[in-house]
Amino acid sequence: MATTNKLRIGILGASGYTGAELLRLLARHPGVELRLLTADRQAGKPLAEIFPHLGGLDLPDLVKIEQADWSGIDLVFCCLPHGTTQQVIAGLPRHLKVVDLSADFRLADPALYAKWYGHEHQAAELQAEAVYGLTELAREAVAKARLVANPGCYPTSA
Question: Which of these, 129, 92, 94, lies nearest to 110 by C-alpha position?
């Protein structure tokens, strides 16, 4: 955790809808500092060029994941499309805590994942450590987890 008592946050896929909405919610949160924003096709641009409504915020420019400096980051939110996050998360440094907003780590059984999504899980070894992030059912496990599979809208609304 950061010495300022703020979590130093990275958002992978900040130029997409999910990333931008998360960024909008976190940008004014007193407990976080947004330090890293990644985008593939939009790398090198300020986020305000893509989302003018976020222009008044003091944010870092977008970079490719491969160019990210992870040393000053405590936690990343992965806002990449379903099916792409498995290999990305597997390649992240182990010191990072990760909250994955895709469906890639929500099913505990890799065989069940393959059945439902039509392809093999690309990071089955990480699936064993992923915690389904419904805090009403797994608060302590979520608090201790390195990798949290964020629930989708249907389970959280029920």
Answer: 129
Domains of the chain: 7-157 (3.40.50.720)
**Residues with catalytic function:** 153
Closest to 106 in 3D by CA, of 87, 91, 85, 92: 85
51-100 pLDDT per residue, tens: 888 888 889 999 999 999 999 999 999 999 988 899 999 999 999 999 99
The 3-state DSSP class for residue 2 equals coil
What is the bridge-based pairing of β-strands 97-100 and 62-63? Answer: unpaired
Name the E strands within the chain.
7-12, 32-38, 62-63, 75-78, 97-100, 131-132, 147-149
